[in-house]
Design a protein that fits this description.
alpha/beta, N-(1-d-carboxylethyl)-l-norvaline Dehydrogenase, domain 2, two-stranded antiparallel ribbon, 45% helix, binds nicotinamide-adenine-dinucleotide
Length: 293
């Protein structure tokens, strides 16, 4: 365990926050997970238990480790319960106002030495840091979805982040069994900057009628050894999320090469968001899912 970090706070008990709490508890940290929504607080421990159960069945975690991890997770609806934390990882909805409100509420709660990290996928870490009273102790800690499965953590220092803070977060990521990779604070950082335009290009290929969705996916799976073709991956991530990343790139880098494909915009307008809405580039009412184009 990193010597000076023993208790980790997680703000937001959503999809990512629960996963982050799970991997921190498995690594031996005491975890306090806070959410504004009482229902999320009430379900956090059971969600983590279910996910750990899957890891036990897969043989990646022992039953004893799972029991010990669950005992280390303390869900709460009271923000002051985060006061013992040496590190707080904010993982609330991708909305700058919501994140700023969390930082303001945390200010009187956090100890002066505590590090505040954000799991944002696309908002400037430097800009978020400037909304806090501790920009030198503020850093991006971008986990990948699903958190228990994915090996990478992107670590994003803002302009004001102190080097020892970046180093501490890299050490925590290693302790979680992840590999940290440091990326500078430019739009969409590194993984999404490369991945989202690839997916967007696959949507253009579909839009122009070069091939059907299943052929595009088969081509990338067989021809480039991608474990999941780009359109299946888009459905998995959520088409609204892919569109918002493309918009961040288009606006932030002002380059036409990041123009979101009109078909992507149309699908999002239709509410075809991928797996979570039952339909995107595939229709999930069918088994196996049927291409929609
Ligand atoms: N989903 C992904 O694939 C993914 C991947 C990497 C990073 N992220 C980032 O992780 C963050 C969380 O995403 P998610 O997918 O878990 O979202 P989610 O919608 O599943 O969860 C967000 C949670 O934040 C809570 N919340 C909102 N406002 C709050 C407040 N003021 N105080 C406390 N809790 C509050 C909500 O109640 C909800 O439980 C976002 O910044 C997102 O960009 C997401």
């Amino acid at each position: 365990m990193t010597p000076d970090i023993r208790t980790i706070g997680v703000v937001g008990a959503g999809n990512m926050g629960n996963g982050i709490a799970q991997v921190c508890a498995l690594a031996g940290y005491t975890v306090v997970i806070y959410d504004i929504d009482a229902a999320k607080v009430a379900s956090a421990r059971a969600t983590i238990e279910t996910s750990l159960g899957r890891q036990v069945r897969r043989g990646t975690v022992s039953a004893d480790q799972a029991v010990a991890a669950v005992a280390k997770v303390h869900p709460t609806g009271t923000i002051t319960h985060l006061s013992p934390c040496e590190l707080v990882i904010e993982s609330v909805s991708e909305d700058e106002e919501a994140k700023r409100a969390v930082y303001a509420a945390l200010q009187p709660v956090l100890r002066p030495s505590a590090i505040l990290a954000t799991d944002t996928s696309s908002i400037s870490v430097t800009r978020l840091a400037s909304a806090t009273e501790r920009p030198a102790q503020f850093v991006g800690m971008h986990f990948m979805n699903p958190v228990p499965m994915m090996e990478l953590v992107e670590v994003i220092p803002g302009v004001a982040t102190a080097p020892h803070v970046t180093a501490s977060i890299e050490a925590v990521a290693r302790r979680l069994g992840k590999t940290p990779v440091v990326a500078q604070d430019f739009p969409a950082f590194m993984v999404n900057r490369i991945l989202a335009p690839m997916i967007n290009e696959a949507i253009y290929v579909l839009y122009e009628g070069v091939a059907t969705a299943d052929r595009i996916d088969a081509a990338l799976e067989l021809g480039a050894h991608h474990p999941m073709g780009p359109l299946k991956l888009a459905d998995f991530i959520g088409l609204d999320i892919v569109l918002s990343i493309m918009r961040v790139l288009h606006e932030g880098l002002a380059d036409q090469k990041y123009r979101p494909c009109p078909l992507l915009i149309r699908y999002v307008e239709a509410g075809w968001l991928g797996r979570k809405s039952g339909r995107g580039f595939y229709d999930y009412a069918f088994d196996p899912p049927k291409p929609t184009r």
